[in-house]
Design goal:
alpha+beta, 2 domains, six-stranded antiparallel β-sheet, four-stranded antiparallel β-sheet, 4 helices, 12 strands, 22% helix, 30% strand, globular
Length: 257
């Protein structure tokens, strides 16, 4: 380890910090430290774990994913559930933890899911579907969700087109259209909440296309959102931040000795 000329530095703490930096470079520990920092940064930016509608009621509801629902369905989420910073939604999740219907498979058919920013909220959502859709409406998923199923499973929908949402611009609307949907493995009742101000829904009570729809204020499926930050950091910034974390961590370790 190099000697430390205290006359060039304001104090002993800075001297020890310089020793720590030298320790990183000379001992070959820089690359592992940077890789660890980059991994942690990636994990942090990839998932924020926003879940709207907890705690769930007992029972559940099968619209629009758990039964033969061949119609449009909308659910609006209060912007206050998402904080104040832009987020990029990459996955949607729906849970089956409250009611066991002994279903053996998820429904089969075609679901088209869109997200948009809307002025409608849980208390003002319209029974006219088109009136609720925002100007930035984006199709984020279109496909079949068929898969094996058991009670306690989570329906995770990976979005083919991530959606960037800014809570300061309005509430979030999910629009789902099901077609050719059947439930050969039995109906699945996903977790719901029916007494809240976090969301509301518009749906067709018969499961067949209707206009206008029926409004359920304060009712909806408990929904998980896997999110990333609204912006992607520059690679150089990530590397510099990782280096700073590595230096700081090892410096603290040596200073505590």
């Amino acid at each position: 380890m190099p000697s430390c000329d205290v006359s060039r530095l304001p104090g002993e703490e800075e001297c020890k910090l310089r020793h720590a930096v030298s320790y990183i470079f000379q001992a070959g520990r820089l690359l592992p430290a940077l890789l660890l920092c980059l991994f942690l940064l990636t994990a942090m930016s990839a998932s924020a774990g926003v879940v709207v509608g907890l705690p769930p009621d007992t029972g559940g509801n099968c619209f629009p994913f758990g039964c033969s629902y061949n119609a449009e369905y909308q659910q609006v989420y209060n912007s206050g559930q998402f904080g104040v910073s832009p987020i990029t939604i990459t996955n949607l999740e729906f849970y089956n933890t409250q009611f066991d219907s002994s279903s053996t498979s998820m429904n089969t058919g075609l679901w088209t899911i869109s997200l948009s920013t809307t002025a409608a909220d849980w208390s003002t959502i319209s029974s006219t579907y088109a009136s609720n859709i925002g100007g930035d409406n984006t199709t984020v998923f279109s496909g079949n969700l068929s898969q094996a199923w058991a009670f306690g499973d989570t329906l995770q929908i990976l979005l083919s087109t991530p959606f960037t949402y800014n809570p300061l611009n309005g509430n979030l609307l999910m629009d789902v259209v099901g077609s050719g949907v059947s439930a050969p493995g039995g109906e699945i009742f996903f977790d719901k909440n029916s007494t809240n101000s976090a969301f509301s829904r518009v749906y067709c009570s018969s499961g067949i296309a209707c206009s206008p729809g029926a409004v359920d204020t304060g009712f909806g499926l408990v929904t998980g959102f896997s999110t990333g930050s609204g912006g992607v950091p520059e690679p150089s910034s990530v590397v510099l931040f990782g280096l700073g974390v590595a230096v700081f961590g090892l410096a603290r370790r040596r200073l505590s000795r």
